[in-house]
């Protein structure tokens, strides 16, 4: 029988349609190619002049914007928001507007033309996470900016336009609506129970065990109770913290191993699917909070959002998370 499940984090209902296709092989999807296309790549060493000047690089002795780097962060050549100017908030009758102030940056994750973050070394993934932290902390100094969205689009089906493994940061002058909704739900839960919703979720999932994929001393990988999409996967820190940019070195090192292991499992079980990774964190200018808990969400692109989802806000997921977790546990690769 189908089930309706309510996500405690978003207050969103999800339909688990168990009578539909649910095994990994049942999904029709665009597999991400395993071999390079051979097209020109502006992210490869020697092509530094094809990108805007770097704002951050990890390198050993070489000059800025030259080969010899292990990671580069550059402004997006076609940014959705620009860093220069004032917000200039104003109204036009009932309508509000402001200048498109913000920052849009690309993290080139390695000099090698590697197609998947799962193929990077743990050290390279740790550098990527450090770059996320370092750039967020730098952008936090700009008081115009309220939120940094850190995300990765892997594969054309997930929105990637270049195959060289990379991630993105977009700094916004407002807190996004979906983030605000999550903060409000977590705040109400804390006001009522005087406990963090996510810490309670961790305790319950660890006790149940059926949706756990991986455990380390720092993180839990879980298929959430009410996932919007099949094989939606969350990585949650065991230690409470509201802001990703406050993560320390040992935590990021363990996260690198955890993220690589998780991506390898998903790529093996689902045969290299496109996916999105999003880091959920508290707003830049807010103090550390007892009610919010940063985490990472990974969304494989296995199904399409259609009219029912757009019209109702409900999502239809054909795969129970307990089964997804079992498939991923059986994949090994720990």
Question: How does this model look, in words?
Answer:
With 334 residues, the chain is of the alpha+beta class. It has one domain (3-22, 42-330): HIT-like (HIT family, subunit A), CATH 3.30.428.10. Helices cover 25% and strands 23% of the residues. The protein has 6 helices and 15 strands. The strands form 3 sheets. Strands 3-4-7-9-8-13-14-12-11-10 form a 10-stranded antiparallel beta sheet, sandwiched between helices. A hairpin with a 2-residue loop joins β5 and β6. The two termini are 33 Å apart. The model has no long low-confidence stretch (mean pLDDT 92).
Features:
334 residues; alpha+beta; HIT family, subunit A; ten-stranded antiparallel β-sheet; three-stranded mixed β-sheet; 15 strands; globular
Strand residues, percent: 15-25%
The CATH architecture name reads 2-Layer Sandwich
Number of strands: 15
CATH class: Alpha Beta
Computed CA radius of gyration, to the nearest angstrom: 20 Å
Question: Terminal Cα separation, in Å?
Answer: 33 Å
Total tally of structural domains: 1
Summarize, please.
This protein is an alpha+beta fold and 334 residues long.
Topology of helices and strands:
Blueprint: E1 3-7, E2 12-16, E3 56-59, E4 69-75, E5 90-92, E6 95-97, E7 103-108, H1 122-139, E8 147-154, E9 166-172, H2 177-193, H3 197-208, E10 212-215, E11 219-222, E12 233-237, H4 249-270, E13 275-280, E14 295-300, H5 307-312, E15 315-317, H6 321-330
Parallel strand pairs: 2-15
Antiparallel strand pairs: 1-2, 3-4, 4-7, 5-6, 7-9, 8-9, 8-13, 10-11, 11-12, 12-14, 13-14
